Structure formats: structure tokens, C-alpha cells
Amino acid sequence: MIRRIVLAGLVTAVVAASPADATEVKIFQTQTQSGFRAGTLEGISVDPLGRLQLADRVERLTAIGEPFLLAAAAHPQGWVVGTGNAGRVLLVRRDGTVDELFAAPEPEVFAVAADPDGTVWAGTSPNGKLYRIPPGGPAEPWFTPGETYIWAIERGPGDALLLATGTQGRLYRVAGKDRGAVVYDSDDTHLRALAVAGGEVLVGTAGEGLVLVLQAQGDAPWSARTVHDAREPEVVALTVAPDGTRYAAVVASEASLVDLSSSSSASSSSSSSAGGDDGGSESGQEGGTVTVTVSTPSAATSAAGGTRAAGYSGPRSTLLAISPAGVVETLTRLQDDTVFDLLFHRGSLWIATGVDGELYRWSGSELVLEKDVDERQIVALLPGDPGPAFATTNAAALFRVAGGTEREGLYTSATLDAEQIARFGTFRWRGEVPAGGDLAFSFRSGISSEPDRTWSEWTPWQGAGGGGRDGGELALAALPRGRYAQWRARFEAGQGRGEGASPLLYGIELTYRQENLRPRFTDLDVLEPGRILVPANFNPGSQVFEPVSPSRDSIFTTLQPGGDGDPRLKTLWKPGFRSLTWDAEDDNDDELVYSLGFQRAGAAAGFSAGEGDEDAAGGEGWLTMAEELDAEHFSFDATVLPDGVYRFRVVVSDRPANPAGAALTAERVSEPVVVDHTPPALVSVAAAGAGRLRVVLEDGLLPLRQVRLSRDAAEWSDLTPEDGLLDGRRESFLVDSGGAAALLLLQSVDAAYNGATYDLRRSPQRTGTPSTTE
To answer: What average pLDDT does the structure give for the chain?
Structure first.
């Protein structure tokens, strides 16, 4: 019997339960293959529909006591592997025992092959050599091509051995001991992959990323045609299906064994270097260094290296299918995984990847994750019975798909980040549990981003099959509050065989609510007098900004925009108005509202608090200007305030996103702001001799900004005060009396743009006796 639990699906990984309740409830959700792949699978696979289930049973045959496993091939008695950095060739028998066949003088064995009679062939690097290792006999050098690397060995047409090499990018046909000939000399740097199907020889290059089909012509040069020119620079693996479909993996990856970067010096400590080509695309290029990286790459975050150029942002791997007619189809792209090998085995295409040690099978439409091993890289796929075998490096080991499914499996989710301290609520799941099977869940939480000893212990398992469940939901009241959480699922097979014997899990939701955090201000600014903020699309020719008058809520008249609003702002001039702007943020992403207040800051002529005035920074006496604002700016008519010095306060609240009593507020108080509506006064005009007048101007609150003179309505000319700096509230000017001028106008403007114009000829402040030249 299958128990089915179905929940409504959501479309994002983290969603709010209600748009208006940002800190009420949010939901972590996983229901896709890519989402589940972010976790750790032990005995679990995930199919293209995003269903977790017990995986095909995989046996770890043996660990191999070598730093690196670089190549592997099927052998009549099991599998043969090539290693580094000791250049050993090992035979792994089907029962897991390991025998050393040969220890080469060269440090790396990048290519191995085995004949039906058990004869093993090994290609070593650097100073590439081909060795023959007969059954039970000593190894002997068989052919020296004069190349740095031997990358692949295959039996070709006519039963001769084919060697794919670098750094000269040549294919050799070896018909006997010391009988080798170059049958294809490419324009590329390396021939990296080799596959033989019938009379065709497939070759993949590194440098230009070409898939070539060669036609055999004995020891004479073979003809070649390009069937695909990849954007990625390296064809790392080729395999052929029985129907003639050719599959290719092309990569641009830091994890490649070949370094085609412009600088080969950047390499990990366990790399080996040899003289040869510098990684360019010219055949026969001499000099430079080729770096072969055989250590674990620094994942997908490395800046450049291998066959991935600096600044390249494309996928690290692309999987191609090439039909017998030559039609190329892109099956899938892997942004962060590096493909190391392909194998078409018993009707399925298998894909080996790193840097997370994942084994995939192509389902016909999408990748199925079949196995996730602890070793970082799966570097080789091998025929096996009943399923394929695969070899890993870092650490070196050999596995095989043993048939049947696992009886138990464990899935551990990726770390879920609530972004703030949160309380976790309910866990819901979608799936199926077979009769006799079980699906149980456990949870933990913590503050550190990586689970460590400071995290809570895993909660006791809560079963989904044998009781203790309530409609697909599990309460998480016992889970301590934290910023991060993890869940895990334990699968136990049920009765019967086949898919129905495995529990299925294809969707989860975990609810949480962040602890409410106080909003905070990052800025508060008071614009210059007369500056107002309007939408950027405001056009004075077609729209009108009018004050809302009379104000029903307070003494302050504000601006009411005409037409549609625009979140972008620009400044305009409106005499008598002042504008406040501010920025606030909330770590819960709550909706915020604002209220404004004001109070006198001190004596009318200064910035210090006068006797009887309240402390502007925290005392009482704030008067309300506006409430329930959702914009981060406010323009108002300041002419209702008497001249003086004021402070303004903005209070922010996350009330719209929180229940009553749970809202938090913060406030920001402005610097003292001078409100001045009175223009500078003409204090005195007196004769100063030699046809000049001494004019004294004074402003009550602000310094003078501009003083200028006009004679008989001519153009204005700016005046300079006697002390040379126009920066005070009281300034003295020497002015040419103008002789017989009928009109002598003096205009003065203060820092609040308050202005007044005086006729010095008729000024009541005029004193003294004019000179005869006036």
C-alpha cells in the first residue's frame, strides 16, 4: 500500500506566507532536482522530477593507496588503473584485491588499456612512453613517440594501437614494438579523448575544442573532418552508443588536467611540470611549460587555470549528442560541475563529475543523480556487471553499481539561512511511503553558517510511516531558535521490489518567522531652503504641483503631485518650502511607515538651547508635522514657522508588518535648522568721501549670500564687502554714489534666499552730508 500526501506547490525557494506579513511567516521550500542536489545524498538518488528515493546499490570495492588515480580501463579479471605521482599501474580484481603490475620511471600514468588476453598497455608522462605489460610477465618499453603526454590508448581499425598525445597534438598508430607512425597531426595542442566505433575513429582536442572523425588509411596520413567546434576549449571524453550516436563532454574548467591558461605557473602544490608546449594552439610549438594539475581543484571559485580562461563565465561542462548524420544537440550544461568521463553502458549514458564526486545517468531528457561519493572527483567510468564501475581520486578508490536498490538511505539538506535569528514552526512534506517502509525526519539549528558543535543536537527521528505523524506535518516547537537550520530524511525500503519498495520524497516546506529587529536610519538630511522633491517625470508644462490647502491635519501645507507617481525624484525650486529626506532599512524587509515632528532648538539668534527650551535631542515638546508616511521624503511650507532655529525628528516603525504590540521603532533627529523668512535689513547709508557711500547690511539669522548694485536700471554688478569675504550676517560695502544717477538700487539676499531691494537715493537710513561729487 502506498500512502500519498500532497501539498500545494509554491514556485520559489523562500516565500512569504503573506505579502503583508513580512516577519510573520516565511517558508523554505525544496521541490526540484537542483534544489535537492544542494544537499548530501547517502544511498539516495534524485530523478529529473525532483524525487528523492533509494538509489541503486553501489559497492566500494577498494581504496587505493596512491595520491591520485588518473586513468582506468576494464580488464578480463577486473579493472586496471594508472596512478600518480609514483607512476604505478595496478590491477583491481573483482573481489577488491589489488595487485601492482608495474611501477614506471615516469611519475604519471594518464592512459591505460587492456586486451582480452590480459595484456595491459600503459602510457606515461612526462617524457611520454608506451609500456606493454603481459600477463604474469615484466613490463617492457614498447614505443616512445617523443611526446610529453599520452592521454588515451585505444585499439583501432586493423587491431593496431592508437595513441592520443600532447603537446604536439598527434595521433600515433602502433603496429608493433618500436613501430609507430603519425597518422594524424592536428593543428591543436593536445588530443585529449579517443573513441573507436567500427571503421571510425573519434578524436577530441584541447585548445580549440574540436570533435574530429578520422578515416583509417593504414600508416599513411588519415583524413579528418570536424563534426563539432565547441565554445569550450577541451573535449575531455567521448563515447558511442550502439545506434551510432556519439556523445562528447566539452569543458572549460580549472580542474582540467591540461593547463591552457596564459600563465602556467599558477598550479597547486601537487602538480607536476614538464618541458613542452606552452598551451598555445600552434602545432609543433616549442618551449614554455605545461602544467598538469592532478590535485583537487579549488572548486568552481578559482579565478582561472586549467582550460578555463580568466574572465570566462560560461558553463564548466557541456554534454553533446552527435547523431550518425552529424547533427549536434546540446543535452545539458553544468555551470559548476566538471565532467571527467562518459560511458554508454547497457542502454544508458553515464556521466562522471567533480568537484563534488557525483555520478549521473542521462534519463533521455534530464540528468539523474545516481550517486554522491565522499571522494571529490569521479575520474573514470568502466564497463561492469550488472552496472558500471567508476574510479575516484582524492581519495583514490574503485566502486561498482552492484544491482538492486539500497535498503536504507539518508538525505541531509543544505544549510537553510533565515538571514536573522528565527523561530522555526512547521515542516511539511510531499511524498509516498510503501507498505512496510518508513520515512523519518530529524532537525537541528544553529547560529554559525557552518554546522559545528555550537549547533543543537539532531532532534529525535519523527516517523512518517508507522504513526507519530499528522497529515504530512511535523511541529518544530522543540527546535531551538537560530539563524540556520538543517533537516534530514531517513529512507527505509518497504515490501516488494522495484520503485514501489522505496519511499519517495518530492517536496518539503519548512516555515519560520524571523525575530523582529528594530529598523534603523542610515541618513537624514534637510535640503537647502526652497528645494522641493518631485517625481523625475514631472513636467511643469503639462502637470501642476499645488499645495493641499488648507491643511486638515496640521499647520503644514505639503505638496500634492498631479498625475502618476514616479519613484525617481528630482529637485525643483519653490520659495518658502523646506524638504527633509532620509534613508531607513529593516533587516526583516518589513514595510515601514514614518512620522515627523519638530521643536524649537534654542534661542532665535543661535544654535544653543536657550533658557526654558527643551533638550532637542531627547526631551519632550515634539509637535507633530505628519504621520503615516510611506515615502522617504517630505516637502512642506515652512512659512508657517516663525523665524528661529528648529530640529526635526523622523520616527520609523515596522507596524504594518507586525501584530499589535510587536512593532519596533527608531528615530533620527536632525541637526539644528535655521528657518528664516526675513530678508537682510539696510542698517545705514553714509557718505564715505571721494564720491562713495558706505552701506551696512545685516541679517537676523543667516549670513549674506549675495549683494549687488544697479545704476539707472542697468545690469546688476556684484559687490565685495570691505573685509573681502561675503560670509557674515553683518557686512559693510563701499559703493560708488553714482554721480547724477536717478536710480541707485542695492539688492541683498541671505542664505535662505530671502531678498530685498533698496534705493540708496531715497533710503531713510541715509546719514551724513553727500560730497559735492554726488
So the answer is: 82
